[in-house]
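Hi, here's the filled form for the chain we discussed.

Project: internal
Contact: R.S.
Residues: 206
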Amino acid sequence: MAANGSGRPNRVAPDGSTHAVADRGGFWGNRGRLLDAQGSVARHHLGRNWIVCVLEFHGRHRTQWQPNRLTELYFLDEPTALAAGHRPCGECRYADYQRFKAAWALAHPDDPPGAREIDRRLHADRLDDDGGQRTHDAPLAGLPDGVVIAHDGGWWLVEGAALFPWSFAGYGDPRPRSAFPEVVTVLTPRATVATVRAGYRCAPRS
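And the returned structure, exactly as it came back:
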């Protein structure tokens, strides 16, 4: 499966916005049928089932960017997809999805860890009342690896004792956690942050 289509706004940033860039993504996914009959983007999402998939699975091929079909979107890596509000696919990433569900159950013991319940909770956490990305503030010291924050006009991946600046092409040079405020703005949905904290580990970044 091709990792991007020339000129198509199919590359997703951590805030969920889509852009037309030449850089390739490491994962793909979807959030429903986004195109109108002419093949132009008509909506931000359709439905609650936002997933992130591997690029290759059983030799399947898709004709990209087709009206009335799931619209292919691409992500730099899994932390980017999680920050944008997606979760692992239960088919092509079955083992990862099972790990995600197990960690979800630990983080949310009162919520059944089924796909419908997870998607309902995630949908409430990822979008505000106006349909934009819902962010939240949290102490940086308590954030687990794999979470993405907003700071100084950019997006940053939390990893170990450092944060890495995000771009469509990859990550820049790290800065220590001590260089950031004690409380930061978090893009990754609250429910996902709790799931990662409970033990879910993102796929290794390249």
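Let me know if anything looks off before we file it.
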